């Protein structure tokens, strides 16, 4: 399933510092630390991130992400440690990742991950490049998936269901 939502409580995109702070409050690309005596929720969150939100680069299969030069097509080999979220020149966020263990963590929202109990990639898309993403998820079909429905929910919410081929 692909869900694209425009939220009304976001700061102005032109105010990069407020936007970066908003992203850091709502999207995480960090493997949470485990305290000496973690709560049940902290332990469950850590296990969900570790199991479902850790990217593993591979090569040699249809869904491999490493190209012939050894670079990840999903850009995980380009991540660097940074203390704050920033934006590249095209307007894409470069998520806060504070340690080596975070470099392969897929961006996610804690509440959605805890409720979904499975892979739940959450990305910020606030620039005009959202049009390219919408095109990609609307028309790209991998050999492993079949897109079955596109629902138009409102001017700000689009839903696309994805059904795996058997």
Proportion of strand residues: 5-15%
Q: Measured on Cα atoms, how large is the radius of gyration?
A: 17 Å
How are helices and strands ordered from N to C? EHHEEHHEE
Q: What is the number of E strands?
A: 5
Number of domains: 1
Could you write a compact summary of the structure shown?
The chain has 4 helices and 5 strands. The protein is an alpha+beta fold.
Could you characterize the architecture of this molecule?
By secondary structure, the protein is of the alpha+beta class. It has one domain (2-164). Helix content is 25%, strand content 14%. It contains four helices and five strands, in the order E-H-H-E-E-H-H-E-E. The protein has helices at residues 16-26, 40-52, 110-116, 130-139, and strands at 2-5, 86-87, 93-94, 145-152, 157-164. Strands 1-5-4 form a three-stranded antiparallel β-sheet, with no helix packed on it. A two-stranded antiparallel sheet has the order 2-3. The longest helix is centred in the N-terminal third of the chain and has 13 residues, at 40-52. Residues 143-166 have low confidence and may be disordered.
Give a topology summary.
Layout: E1 2-5, H1 16-26, H2 40-52, E2 86-87, E3 93-94, H3 110-116, H4 130-139, E4 145-152, E5 157-164
Antiparallel strand pairs: 1-5, 2-3, 4-5
Question: What would the keywords be for this entry?
Answer:
166 residues; alpha+beta; three-stranded antiparallel sheet; two-stranded antiparallel ribbon; 4 helices; globular; disordered C terminus
